[in-house]
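Ligand: magnesium ion. Inputs:
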Amino acid sequence: MSAAGSSSAPVPHNALPPPSGSSARTSRIASHSHIKGLGLSGEGLASNDNAGFIGQTNAREACGVVVDLIKSRKFSGRALLLAGAPGTGKTALALAISHELGVKVPFCPIVGSEVYSTEVKKTEVLSETFRRAIGLRIKETKEVYEGEVTELTPTEAENPLSGYGKTVSHVIVGLKTVKGTKQLRLDPSIYESIMKEKIVVGDVVYIEANTGAVKRVGRSDAYASSYDLESETYVPLPKGDVHKRKQLVQDVTLGDLDTANARPQGGQDIMSVMGSLVRSGRTEVTEKLRREVDRVVKGYVDQGVAEVVPGVVFIDEVHMLDIECFTYLNALLESPMAPTVILATNRGRSLVRGTDDIVSAHGVPVDLLDRCLIVKTETYSREQVAKVVQVRANVEGLKLGSNVLDRLASEGEKASLRYALQLLTPASILAGLAGRTQIELEDIGELNELFLDAKTSARAVNTTDGGFNGGLP
Ligand SMILES: Nc1ncnc2c1ncn2[C@@H]1O[C@H](COP(=O)(O)OP(=O)(O)OP(=O)(O)O)[C@@H](O)[C@H]1O
Ligand SMILES: [Mg+2]
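Predicted complex:
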């Protein structure tokens, strides 16, 4: 089911803004790093333990159906709602769906509370997220020169304007492919971009014929060293002629295009850089600019240059949205270019935020619920908790002593799966303090004296003497 790009995929080029992906978003999924996908068989059935996912078979199969619907583009205008108790794997399921869709499909996770900002309107945050989830695959056939650099000789000439110094009048670049070699005589401005990309003899590069943009693909593998750890990427010698037509593909999102166009196009001098630092508060992209971007994009699509790739918006803790956001969400879902929407919540019946009388299932108003397919996640049995704990211990590189797994499983059954998982790291620290590399039962025992799980804590504060404040009024 993997949709990863094949090795023959065309190389992306650098004529457009780089696709965004802030590091803050990646750090949030670290506790799910063992989840590699939904782990379904070819027929869409969930075997008990696959791709890091344990149990939760019904929900996984349901999500598999949704993935198929998304892939065949039959899910737009609808939403998937994952509902279930805390720590039952809703966020994990959403991530697994994103893995199944492949890297080329934009996946934008946000948490319901992210819409509340003093600088940007809530609806603005939502529509920006939706725009970021609509990908655009731009295909261009370009005339390029591609090959391994065999020669790089700048030719200097006297500067005609001043008596001193010399300027580069042109540069000779030799390129080699499997089929042949070619020597190019290039403009000094191209020499500048060559210097910028730090290209040296032995690199594989391509140069766009009509723009002169230079792109370093990697180092030719003829120069590969025998070190095991290196930051260099080695690529084979390009096939075909040096001068050829090549299809280049670039993936961007509508959100990228919006921000790229909204940023004031300042110069490269220090003052405008400083200015943009001071003004780095989030600026709103105006509706007018969006329409302008849409118009250009539509033109590209009509010409067959670009293709729209609808992605996925994942809103975790959706009950944190308020009634205004929900109505806006309805409107967004019905817009002609809507991404797939996945929502997750751990609330049962609760008040819809922003109202004081509408109580609804999952804290989501009925009109939005009506547009949702709802998938419920089940709580885990003791064996399943044990399995997940074992998987996480392997991922975190922790060794468990005898009976520790059993003990953690019963903790997990009493409290929640997440509590059991959360005990792992502190337990490993206690084990380290005791000079062991393996977690033993006594570490877990000590932890239970040090920390409370949610349920015990709740019981403690619910006692008649007023809990922690010792009965003070
Ligand atoms: N079936 C499963 N197999 C493997 N790991 C799981 C499974 N279910 C949950 N986990 C792991 O358990 C932890 C808690 O799950 P997750 O964060 O997805 O819960 P959640 O349903 O989103 O909870 P909340 O409602 O509190 O947001 C995560 O580290 C997740 O990767
Ligand atoms: Mg969650």
